Amino acid sequence: MRRRRLAPLLALSVTATLAPALATSTATAAPAATPSTPSSSAAKGALDQYVKQKPQWKRCLADSPAEFECATIKVPLDYRVPGGKRIGLAMSRIKSTAPDKRHGVLFSNPGGPGEKGLYTPLGMQDKLPKSAQQKYDLIGFDPRGVAQSGPVSCGLEPEEAENWLRPYKEETFDKDVAWARDVANKCREKAGDTLPHITTRNTARDMDLIRAILGEKKISYVGYSYGTYLGAVYTQLFPGRADRFVLDSAVDPVRAWRGMIQWWAEGAEPAYDRWTEWAARRSEKYGLGDTPKEVDRTFWDLVAQADEKPIEVDGRPNTGDDVRSGMRGAVFTPQDATEGIVELKKAAAGEPASAKKLAAFAGAEGTGTAGAAADTAEVPSDNPTASFWAVVCGDNSAAWSRDPESYRRDAIEDKGRYPLYGDFASSIKPCAFWDKSVEPATRVNNKVGSLIVQNEWDSQTPLPSAQVLHAELEGSKMVTVLRGEGHGVYPNGNACTDGTVNDYLLTGKLPAKDVTCQATADSNAEARKNQKRDALPGSPLPERHPDRF
Questions:
Q1: Catalytic entry in 458, 465, 470, 545
Q2: Which of 92, 149, 153, 225 is catalytic?
Q3: What is the 3-state secondary structure (H, E, C) of 486-516?
Q4: Catalytic: 545?
Q5: Which residue among the candidates 92, 487, 539, 545 is catalytic per the annotation?
Q6: Is 225 annotated as catalytic?
Q7: Which H or E run contains 212?
Q8: Buried residues in 234-243 as b, exposed as e (16+ CB within 10 A)
């Protein structure tokens, strides 16, 4: 998201006999179909042609490591009609460094929706212990509709694609409704035959098709943020195919997707309260107030001042809404938020302010979606946005009201309940005008073994979100990092968290019970660095976006 606020802050996303399972997955947990299942025989025959593909592996990039290979396969656009239109799916691999110790394949997804994953094996290679690199072929892929995998476009201009988290104002609400309707209409007109099939369920089916093409009986997986939901959906559709699944910074599957966006507002309030207490205890150093109530007053006075006269930062005005929006992510790291508010006070008084500390203040708000996946001229600039809406709206259209006035009511109510960000999260989105989902929402509720890893203070997927996923995945164990900050945990140099995940990936044995780790200053710093990571060396992997999961 690129909002006009605190501008310098934002300078900162088998074999053929196994094929029937690809077409017979349902919304509820169901065992993979077998060749003898009568209803699957036609689907099996239609999918045989896909499973028999022989990927043509080649070096991904001229300047990337020789062992980093890419290939493109064909997948059905609509798995209900496997003989119909096909799309290309770009995938990558780095093979096991010790074939005699190889256990299988380790898939990965960096988050999203709308983020590419083709280059994640490079990051995994850089961070996984050597023993894990011996165990697995590292597999990445761009999800369908994203980047090199049949990139979708709605033909959106930058001003339509950006700034989608809009604060509620009575005088602008009609314009916001018109914007949301226009985005949905443009998407329908530009890609109406394709967008309904750019869903998490179909991406999970693509993963299983890749598994089949690679000749693997099962897959292991490391998924971050949105990738936790993708992984959970895979375990639901293909429980017999899931081996060792690590779900890091977890999405609440019950609230996908409108409710997850609202989690950003709900989760920010306890983080804000924690921040006021932190700053008050250090009032002598920072001067924001001697009590939490005084710190709170300092912040809202700044918001009011910016509403009356926008605060200039590097020549760009920032309103009270801009300040609220920037603070939403910043409060999850109290020191960054405190230093940012100190500098903002200076800017409000017309004094020189530290751009570096202001950048930390709004770092969690990120850069924007438009152009994030545009590696080549063939990828439309609005591809990240178009693919984002396809999933967020299309996974579960029933979660989105068709009545614009209901969004007005929710935004007003939630601004009262969650004053920092409630109206941003609950106001109208293009999903209000999206077509009905072609499949029912996935009900995640199974006993497949998995390991959920979660920071206590995560701005994008708050701790209660992960706790819900843990409850729904009855076979899971959970690692909670107390005082952990940042979005994304593994690996971060914390012996407790990294050790638990590594043991699971290497042995396949989950901890006997849930694990509680304590964050360290170094592990928090590493997690925050991962959250705002630069592109991986030798690849066009984008930084993680704050308006994504």
A1: 458
A2: 225
A3: CCCCCCCCCHHHHHHHHHHHHHCCCCCCCEE
A4: no
A5: 487
A6: yes
A7: helix 200-213
A8: bbbbbbebbb
Query: 12, 543 in Cβ contact below 8 A?
Result: yes
Return the structure tokens found at 490.
């593994």
Round to whole Å and give the CA distance between 358 and 213: 49
Q: Which two structure tokens, joined as six digits, stand for 35?
A: 């060749």
* DSSP state letters, 368-411: -STTTT--STTS-TTHHHHHHHHHHHHS-GGGS-S-HHHHHHHH
Assess whether 487 carries a catalytic annotation: yes
For the ranges 123-127, 364-368, 396-400, the maximum mean pLDDT occurs at: 396-400
CA-angle at 360, arms to 113 and 312, nearest 5°: 105
Average pLDDT, the chain: 88
- Single-letter residue type at 58: K
Q: In whole angstroms, what separates CA 151 from the centre of its chain? A: 18
Cα angle vertex 459, ends 279, 162, to 5°? 115
337 SS3 class = helix
Indicate the SS3 state at residue 324: helix
- Pick the residue with more confidence: 374 or 234? 234
* Alpha-carbon gap, residue 367 to 7, rounded angstroms: 10
